[in-house]
Amino acid sequence: MEENHLFPVFFKLHRLQVLVVGGGNIGLEKANAMLENCPQANVTIVSMDFLPELTSLTHQYPNITLVQKSFSCGDLLGKDLVIAATNDRELNYHVWETAKCSKVLINVADTPDLCDFYLGSIVRKGNLKIAISTNGKSPTVAKRLKQVLQEAIPDTIDEVLNKLSLIRDKLTGDFSAKVKKLNSLTDVLVKSERDPL
Ligand SMILES: C[C@@]1(CC(=O)O)C2=NC(=C\c3[nH]c(c(CCC(=O)O)c3CC(=O)O)Cc3[nH]c(c(CC(=O)O)c3CCC(=O)O)/C=C3\N/C(=C\2)[C@@H](CCC(=O)O)[C@]3(C)CC(=O)O)/[C@H]1CCC(=O)O
Ligand SMILES: NC(=O)c1ccc[n+]([C@@H]2O[C@H](COP(=O)([O-])OP(=O)(O)OC[C@H]3O[C@@H](n4cnc5c(N)ncnc54)[C@H](O)[C@@H]3O)[C@@H](O)[C@H]2O)c1
């Protein structure tokens, strides 16, 4: 089997500065994905022109800024993450080179080989979030799996998480005693009805 070296992490986007270059379909898709998950995300989009949906997003989200211009190196100043999503492959490569010089993490939408990170397909149930990747093989399958899991996981999972969080805060004793208690309380989640143990 082909190797899968991706290591998932969950970013707190309201603490980071994100630059998206390109205000077309893909710029919109990526900006939407970030803002739906983190409405306070700081997202600047630099583009020659913008889809009207992106202009509408500025009314909904306080921290999105549209800058109508051609990309230049200075746009990367102060940025933590960059998504290059123009329809110009050479320009996307130039954005990648600039990001690498500045040690900024970059996703190049038309070139997975240049991506430091991929966006995942995201299942959300209150406090639960599951990010799905297919190692870049089929974003469509990632999207379908998201729909399957969204249906399969009960909405009550959020109540379980909130109750466990309360219990977790109240537990006393040393770390290993707490881990033991939490594991025994949640045992039921992993034991099937047919499991005699
Ligand atoms: C998961 C999701 C997250 C998001 O974007 O928020 C995402 N793509 C989504 C949808 C989607 N993207 C594409 C289609 C059309 C059908 C198809 O190709 O399957 C659909 C389906 C649709 O829109 O219905 C086309 C496409 N995508 C990439 C390329 C370039 C290439 O592969 O060369 C091309 C070809 C462009 C062309 O042909 O011109 C590349 C990437 N897309 C990724 C993520 C990363 C890998 C994730 C993984 O490991 O699985 C990666 C590598 C980089 C990145 O973008 O981060 C989001 C699901 C949203 C949801 O959950 O609803
Ligand atoms: N990763 C993914 O999920 C995915 C999915 C589909 C397509 N793609 C790829 O993403 C790329 C973008 O697709 P799209 O549909 O958004 O294209 P699009 O034509 O809708 O948008 C391109 C945007 O880039 C902007 N742009 C062009 N030159 C610029 C410059 N010099 N400075 C700033 N902005 C500039 C344009 O103004 C436009 O807003 C394509 O190469 C496509 O193959 C990626």
UniProtKB/TrEMBL annotation:
InterPro entries: Met8-like, NAD(P)-bd_dom_sf, Sirohaem_synthase_central, Sirohaem_synthase_N. GO terms for molecular function: ferrochelatase activity; precorrin-2 dehydrogenase activity. Residues 126-147 form the Siroheme synthase central domain. GO terms for biological process: siroheme biosynthetic process. Keywords: NAD, Oxidoreductase, Porphyrin biosynthesis. Its EC number is 1.3.1.76. The keyword NAD applies. The keyword Ligase does not apply. This is precorrin-2 dehydrogenase. The lineage of its organism: Bacteria, Pseudomonadati, Bacteroidota, Chitinophagia, Chitinophagales.
